[in-house]
Design brief:
Layout: H1 10-13, H2 18-22, H3 27-36, E1 42-43, H4 55-66, H5 79-93, E2 103-106, H6 108-120, E3 126-131, H7 135-143, E4 147-152, H8 163-167, E5 174-179, H9 192-204, E6 208-212, E7 237-242, E8 255-258, H10 261-274, H11 280-292, H12 294-318, E9 330-331, H13 342-353, E10 355-356, E11 358-359, E12 371-374, H14 379-396
Parallel strand pairs: 1-10, 3-4, 3-5, 5-6, 6-7
Antiparallel strand pairs: 2-8, 7-8, 9-12, 11-12
The chain binds pyridoxal-5'-phosphate.
Pyridoxal-5'-phosphate binds near residues 109, 184, 214 and 250.
Length: about 400
């Protein structure tokens, strides 16, 4: 077999699509692979709750298995789940979505994002999104044949996306704005005022808005603005939500999309051929989560908030300047006082002090100079990680 100068097996490389070859592997995965080979590591890396799914939710799923609910469901998702979701969106946001045609149950928000992009984009269409942002946004747009257009955000503006910055990047190819607040990796929450300004731009240019609100319930002392509730935005917003984060249900793989009938029909067309239906057991668990899970969410939010305050104060005390994240479960401190790149910082911290964080550059160019620390881990671990990080920063900071 022949290889090229980069050591790739050329015959095999040609077998995979150029579209896929162009996408770099996730910068997050690389760190998890390194971490898996080490012992005694405190991980602030993985973006998932350390809580186990509340027992009554697990029990509902176990009971459904005992009763033999092991078949496919409707392509759109179980009617009971869509009804519960419709009720939830009405109760929470006063938004009315018809469970028969305006809601689709998906395999996590991951699938919903992919479907949304494939359903709306023609080749070369542009999608404007904040930098830094969740690693899948860029890839989903590219894989659907679109072009991601990045809008820089920064610590001084609390990593909120500025409407004027979006507008200055709009061309005749722009199809949509993709935002996700509360945000991964920064923990930023978008104010209602800032969101309204973005809605104004979307209306003026007749753009769709894909709003990934997977962290909607994880906010601390501020209110989450559901984008579809902004004046005139329900018809042009694809609202994405899920169960992974708030209910500690990452492994169940359940999310959803709420949008107009036309868009949900287009997304369902792809979903029915590629997925068929979201996992049945997961859907049963999601019904229970929506009906009885609010107390559990409130308890977890209280605990995340305690950890959030500890980590943000700790990072600032060490000298890693960190703006106050008001949502999700991430802190995004600046590591510029060390003069290392964020990748160097993360690698050295892992090797020297056995603390895993994710380099900000994995989330876009504007993430360079920062690292993402996920605080969905115990307070004791957070405190130990902070003391190791202090030792590391004291050793490496430039004076
Ligand atoms: N959107 C954001 C912003 C995320 O952080 C994640 C997971 O980390 C996802 C979507 C995917 O979540 P799901 O488990 O629902 O596929």
């Amino acid at each position: 077999m022949s290889t090229n100068s980069r050591g790739q097996h050329t015959e095999y490389h040609n077998l995979t699509s150029q579209q896929v070859n162009r996408i770099p592997p996730s910068g997050i995965r690389k760190f998890f692979d390194l971490l898996a080979s080490m012992e005694g590591v405190i991980s602030l890396g993985v973006g998932e709750p350390d809580f186990t799914t509340p027992w009554h939710i697990r029990e509902a799923a176990i009971y459904s298995l005992e009763k033999g609910y092991t078949m496919y469901t409707s392509n759109l998702g179980m009617p009971e789940l869509r009804q519960e979701l419709s009720r939830y969106l009405k109760d929470t946001y006063n938004l009315e979505y018809d469970p028969n045609g305006e809601l689709l149950i998906t395999v996590g928000v991951s699938e919903a994002l992919d479907l949304a992009m494939r359903a709306i984009l023609n080749p070369g269409d542009e999608v404007v999104m904040p930098d830094p942002c969740y690693v899948s946004y860029n890839a989903c747009v590219t894989l659907a044949g679109g072009k991601p257009i990045m809008v820089p955000t920064n610590q001084e503006n609390n990593f909120e996306t500025d409407a004027a910055d979006i507008e200055s990047r709009i061309t005749n190819k722009t199809k949509a704005i993709l935002i996700g607040y509360p945000a991964n990796p920064t923990g930023a929450v978008m104010s209602r005022e800032k969101s309204s300004q973005i809605a104004e731009v979307a209306r003026r240019h007749r753009l769709l808005v894909i709003s990934d609100e997977i962290y909607a319930k994880l906010v601390y002392g501020v209110e989450h603005t559901c984008f579809a509730t902004l004046p005139g935005m329900k018809e042009s917003t694809i609202l994405l939500g899920g169960f992974s984060k708030a209910y500690a249900m990452t492994g169940w793989r359940i999310g959803y999309a709420a949008a107009t009938r036309e868009i949900i029909a287009a997304m369902t067309k792809i979903h029915q051929y590629t997925i068929m239906s979201a996992p049945t057991m997961g859907q049963v668990a999601a019904i229970e989560a929506l009906r009885e899970g609010e107390t559990n969410v409130a308890e977890m939010v209280e605990e995340y908030n305690r950890r959030r305050r500890t980590i943000v104060k700790g990072l600032n005390d060490i000298g890693l300047s960190c703006f106050e994240p008001r949502g999700a479960f991430y802190a995004f401190p600046s590591i510029k006082c060390t003069s290392m790149t964020s990748e160097e910082f993360a690698e050295k911290l892992l090797v020297e002090e056995k603390v895993a964080v994710v380099p900000g550059s994995a989330f876009g160019q504007c993430g360079e100079g920062y690292v993402r620390c996920c605080y969905a881990t115990s307070l004791a671990e957070i405190e130990e990680a902070l003391s190791r990080m202090k030792r590391f920063v004291d050793k490496h900071k430039i004076v």
